[in-house]
Amino acid sequence: MDNHKKKRKRRKQEGIGGNGAIFALCGVLAGLLSMVKRIPLTNIIGDNGNAYFSMAFDTYTFFFLFCGYAAPAVAAKMTSARCVKGQFRNTRRVWNASIGLTLGSGLLCTLLMLFLSDFLAGSLYGEPLSAIAMKLLSVNLLLASVLGMYRGFFQGMGTMVPTSLSRFLEEVLCLAVMLLAAGSMGDYGGKVGALLQNSNYEQAFGAAGGILGLVAGSAVPLLFLLVVFAMFQSSFRKKERKDMGKGTESYRRIVRILMLSTLPVILIALVTQGSVIVDQIMFLKLSPSGRDTIVQWGVYSGKYRILANMPAVVVTAVCASLVPAISVSNASMNIGRLKEKSQMLIRLSVLLALPAAVFFTVMADTLIPALFKVGEMDLAAKLLRIGSITIVLQALSMALSGVLQGLERERNVLINSAVSFFVHVIAVYVLIGQLKMDITGVLIAVIILYALLFVLNLVSIQRRLSLRIDWGRMIGIPVIASGVAGVVIFLINRLLAEKLASSAMAWICFLAGTLIYVILILALHGISERELKEIPGGEIVIVLGRALRLM
Q1: Are 71 and 262 in contact (CB under 8 A)?
Q2: Whole-number Å distance between alpha carbons of 512 and 155
Q3: pLDDT at 408
Q4: Which of 247, 269, 249 is nearest to 258 (CA)?
Q5: Which regions of 10-88 does DSSP assign to beta strands (E)?
Q6: pLDDT for position 481
Q7: Is the dihedral angle over the CA atoms 103, 107, 110, 116 positive or is it negative?
Q8: How many Å apart are CA 139 and CA 192, to the nearest integer?
Q9: CB neighbours of 459 closer than 8 A, spacing ≥ 6?
C-alpha cells in the first residue's frame, strides 16, 4: 500500500496520469483546431490572402514574444510556489507585478506594431496591402497578453478549469468569426478593388476578416476570465488575511525574478520562431523580379506549413507531459530514471512523427485537393512531399530540446538554436539569392535548420547523460511499421483513386494506415505496456492491444 501511494505521489509530481492525459488531449485538440481553421480560411481568401494573413500573423508573433509569450508560465510557477507555502500576500504581489508588466509591455508592443505596420508591409515585405491585416491584429497583442496572464494565474492557483473553458471558447469564437468576417470583408474589398482597379484588395480585406476572428477569440474569453477573477477575489482575500507569514517580498525582487526567468525563454523563441520572419523577408527580397513570389509564399505558409505543423502540435502536447518527469528525476539525481525518461521522450517523438511523414509523402497529391479548393495545388503537393522529412527532424529537435530543458540546460538549447539559425540564414541566401530557386529553396533551408539542431542537441545530451540508445528499437521498428503502412495506403490510393472522392480517399487511407501502424508497433514490441501507461492517451492503445492479443 505504501509503495502504491509513493508511486501515485511520484506520478502526480511528474505531471503524468489521468489529469495529464486530459490536459494533453485538450492541448492537442485546441492546437489542431487553431491550425485546421486555416484550411477553410484558405478556401475563402486564396493563396494571396494567405500570404497577407501570414505576414500579419508572423509579425504579430514576433512582437508577442516580448509581451505575452513567456511571462504567463513564469508567473504561474511563482504563484504556485508561494501558494504551496501559504504566502498569499506574496502571491498577490506576484500578480500585481506580473499584470503590471504585461499591461505595459502589451500596450507598448501594440503601439509599435500599429505605427510600424505601413513601414513593415511596404518596405520590409514589399506588400503594402498586408498593412490592413497587420494594423487590425496589433490590437490583439494587448488582449492576448493579458488573457495569457489570467490563465497563468489560475494555473498557478492549482486549477485548469478556467483555462480549459476559456481556450475552448477562444477557438470556437475565433473559427466562427474568422469565417464569417473573411467572407463579408472580402466582398467589401472586392468592391474597393473594382474602384481602384486592383483585385488584390479582395484578398487583403479577406485576410483582415480572418484576423478579426483572432481578435474576437481573445476579447470574449478575456471578459469571461475577468468575471471569474472578480468572483474569486472574496475567497482569496480571506486567505490573505489568514496569511501569518512574516516575510513580504519587495516588488523590485519579484520584477527581477520575472524578467530574469522570461529572458532565456524569449531568446530561445526569437531564434527558433524568428526564422519564419527571416525566411519571409529574404524570399520576397531575394527572389528574381517577375516571379509570383506572393502566391508561392501563400502556398508555403497557408497550405504546406499548416499541414506540416500538425504532427508537431501532437508531439509537443504528448511529450510535454514527460518534461516535468525529467525535471523531477534531475532534481532528485535519479540518473537511471532520468535516462529512461529521456530515451522514452526521444522514442515517442519518432513513433508519432515518422508515420505522419510517410502519410504526407504518399498522400500529398490526394490530400491537398481534399482539403483545399482554391489556389495552386501542384506546388503545395510538391512542398508536402519534399518537406515530410522536416516533420521527423522537427519532432526530434523539439524532443531533445525538451530533454535539455528538463536537465536545466537552457543555455545549450539557446546556443544550438542560434548556430542552427545562422547556418539556416546562409542556406536561404545561397539557395534563393545565388541559385535563384523558388520557394523550395526556403524549404530545403528549413530542413537544414532542423537537421543541424537535432545533431547539436543530441551531442549536448550525450555529454550530460551518455545515453545508450537502442537504434533498432527506436528507429528500426517505427521505420518498418510506417513503411508497411505506407505501402498499404499507396496501394489503396492507386486502386480506389478513380472510384472515390479525394476527401473520402484521404480518410480511408488515414484510418487504415493508422490501424496497421499501431498493430505493427505493438506486434514488434516497439513500445511496452508499462511505457504506454506513462504517456497521455496510452490506455486507449493498451485496450486495443489487449483486444488483439498483442500485449
Answers
A1: yes
A2: 39
A3: 77
A4: 249
A5: none
A6: 93
A7: negative
A8: 24
A9: none
Which grid coordinates belong to 125? Answer: 515585405
Distance CA 203, CA 294 (A): 12
Q: What is the pTM of this model?
A: 0.84
Is residue 18 packed enough to be buried (19+ CB in 10 Å), middle (13-18) or exposed (0-12)?
exposed
Q: What integer pLDDT is reported at residue 22 of this predicted model?
A: 54
pLDDT confidence of residue 531: 73
Residue carrying the nine cell digits 499541414: 307
What are the grid coordinates assigned to 23, written together? 490536459
Q: For residues 543 and 204, give the distance between their C-alpha atoms in angstroms, rounded to a whole number.
A: 49
Cell of 298: 501563400
Cell matching residue 497 = 483513386
Q: List, run by run, the mean pLDDT of 10-residue segments along the chain (551 residues).
A: 48 44 57 76 90 92 90 85 82 91 94 94 89 94 94 83 81 89 91 87 92 93 92 83 74 89 84 84 85 89 89 74 67 72 84 93 92 90 93 89 81 90 95 92 95 92 80 84 94 86 90 92 83 72 76 69
> Which one-letter DSSP state was computed for residue 333?
T
Which burial class, exposed, middle or buried, applies to 13 when counting CB atoms under 10 A from its CB (0-12, 13-18, 19+)?
Answer: middle
Q: How far apart are CA 537 and CA 223, in angstroms?
A: 32
CA 468 vs. chain centroid, Å, equals 30
The answer to whether 163 touches 229, Cβ cutoff 8 Å, is: no
